[in-house]
Specification:
alpha/beta, 8-stranded parallel beta barrel, TIM Barrel, 10 strands, 14 helices, two-stranded antiparallel ribbon
Length: 391
């Protein structure tokens, strides 16, 4: 049996057995027990000038092939989100091209697709609330014209311009009034982006939740749900319990998704669960698919048996500083053969240490998240060798 070399924080290595890949089966159609989107990353051309501050130079064949990988497991793709390095290397031109290309690919296979709509094409850091509305509308119309579903992302411009909860209500109403179909709201917490710490008008999640609920209720015909990414399961459950029937909770909690997706015991009063829109699912798409297929078969134990081990892996990928989780997603993509090189837009592949990556390797091996274990072991060994370490 092939083994893996693991590295601790002091650079001391040890060997462990390499586990075989789980025998997961692809579904014959979209998943039915839960709606699940994987927030996909972008793959750069490894020989291009993808250095800090340079425009993104994308390997479109590999990037789109990764989306087909996600669709093949019955999951939807959430594109042009923070996982795709928006605000961390992916500029406005590349974002528009990504949306157009992904929308075309989704149509070609009937794949589910939603994409992020933001204000990040505006260069000025400080703009008025009216300018925030205009910026949102520009991206909204582009996305709708491309034929993609909309996730209305949290805006740094709005966070800087808004002074009260009423400012958020006004901006969201203006944008939602212009939407041609219902959209998903996105609440991104400070762990992912410190500039959004007081989003929806307060650093207190309960106070901000009241504003979110008011926005959803006031625009019920234009809001299909909310993706909540606070890494706070209790806050998500609390808001989920108060959502109107017309709105879905999409968990964006990469620390606690297993229990949130499983939800309350069926048949209990007011039983609720969260659907999923997760960067973690880009890293463990086969596992996520197999677990949700088990739920469809009524086997909650199998769901937990498959998905529980991936949560420790996700917690490592999303460890503080959490906004560097994208490095772990791309690293696992490389290990699993979805991209030729461990490289990222903006040079972000350098954002995590070798011991951090080694722990990802260990947990991926333990959780059955290595799709091609021998390839993963060989690639990891090559990275250790490149860095002068025994492999």
């Amino acid at each position: 049996m092939t083994d893996l070399v693991l590295l601790d924080a002091a650079g001391v290595s040890r060997r462990v057995d390499l586990n075989p890949a789980p025998a997961f089966r692809k579904p014959t159609g979209p998943l039915s027990a839960r709606v699940a989107y994987a927030a996909a990353h972008v793959i750069p051309r490894p020989f291009a000038e993808n250095v800090p501050g340079a425009p993104a130079d994308i390997d479109w064949d590999a990037t789109l092939a990764f989306r087909h990988h996600v669709w093949s497991w019955g999951l939807g793709v959430a594109d042009a989100m923070d996982t795709a390095q928006r605000n961390m290397g992916l500029g406005a031109a590349a974002t528009r091209e990504l949306i157009s290309r992904s929308a075309a690919e989704a149509r070609s296979v009937g794949g589910a697709l939603v994409v992020g709509v933001n204000t990040d094409h505006v260069d000025d850091e400080q703009i008025s609330l009216d300018a925030v509305i205009d910026a949102y509308l520009e991206q909204l119309h582009f996305t709708e014209d491309a034929g993609a579903g909309v996730v209305l992302m949290a805006s740094r411009h709005l966070a800087r311009a808004a002074e009260t909860a009423e400012d958020y209500r006004r901006v969201y109403k203006a944008v939602l009034d212009a939407a041609s179909t219902p959209v998903v709201l996105h609440w991104l917490g400070a762990a992912f982006d410190p500039s959004l710490a007081a989003y929806f008008g307060s650093t207190d999640s309960a106070t901000a939740s009241a504003t979110v609920l008011q926005i959803i209720e006031e625009n019920a015909d234009k809001v299909s749900g909310i993706k909540m990414s606070l890494l706070d399961a209790d806050a998500e459950i609390s808001l989920r319990s108060r959502l109107p029937e017309s709105a879905t909770m999409f968990t964006g909690d990469d620390f606690n998704y297993v229990g949130l997706i499983l939800g309350d015991t069926p048949g209990t009063a007011d039983a609720r669960y969260s659907d999923a829109l997760l960067g973690a699912f880009a890293a463990v798409a086969p596992n996520a698919s197999a677990a949700i297929q088990a739920l469809a078969a009524g086997d909650r134990d199998a769901y937990r048996r498959i998905l529980d081990p991936t949560e420790a892996l996700s917690r490592q990928v999303f460890a503080a500083p959490t906004f560097y989780y994208k490095t772990g997603v791309a690293f696992l993509s490389w290990l699993n053969g979805h991209q030729a090189a461990f490289s990222m837009v903006g040079g972000l592949h350098a954002a995590r240490s070798l011991p951090h990556l080694s722990e990802i390797v260990r947990l991926a091996n333990d959780s059955g998240a290595l799709e091609r274990p021998e390839l993963a072991a060989a690639r990891w060994s090559s990275l250790l060798t490149l860095n002068g370490l025994p492999a």
